[in-house]
Amino acid sequence: MSMKLERTEAAPRGPRTVVIDAYPSAALEYTDDYAIVAIDVIRATTTAVTAVACGRRCFVAPTVDAASVLAQKLDHPLLAGEIGGNMPFGFEMDNSPAEIAERTDIERPIILVTSSGTLLIHNAALSGHAYLACFRNVGPTVRYLATRYRRVAVIGAGSRGEFREEDQFCCAQVAGGLLASGFSAANDGTLEIVERWRNEAPDAWLRSNSVRFLRSTGQEPDLEFILAHRNDLDDAFRVEGSEVRRAGDADDLREEGRERVAGIR
Question: Which CATH superfamily is 32-254 part of?
């Protein structure tokens, strides 16, 4: 279902607020003190989070060309992804959380590029406070953000002009968790999405066109993987530059950098 969401500007200081939005360009609207949560359940954020959870370094690129440039800087990287539903020439694997979970070559960093998900992540990372969420880590993401930020934008990647059901559902879970933690909805559209999905069955999003695509192209293992992995991780995941890291690890690196600048290390 394609949706147009009203945006509401919040004061720099004030009550804690959360807003739901959609599409990669939306991430450029939220800067300054916003934390941005990028969500592309099928499949970019699920693949990226799964790669890091397996112990593999994960980098995201907004385009195939950017992925090729990044590949020159890494040792034997694994190029993965899709553009328009097709794996780009020279890539080794599709944008598949099921496949990345099964691979044993975890010493190889993955470079992921997708039609809309990695562009959203790239745009969100420009804020300096970008996080990834999927059904695997909703709870940890909510808990991490609730104690660190006053303004949070939860953004679904969308696909082919649609804010798809799986992303709406995940956005609603993250935003709903923040509302339960004392945040307020920044606008009526945010509250509407949270309420729409609040009492739905966990698999209500299966009517999505993304699900139809996976089924029609023989990629059911990814759908089965997503259905089988819900809130099974204990970490929030943050983007530092183009690399996805566990949020605690990223915080440690940022602190080390501050200490070096201050001459402590």
Answer: ComB-like (3.90.1560.10)
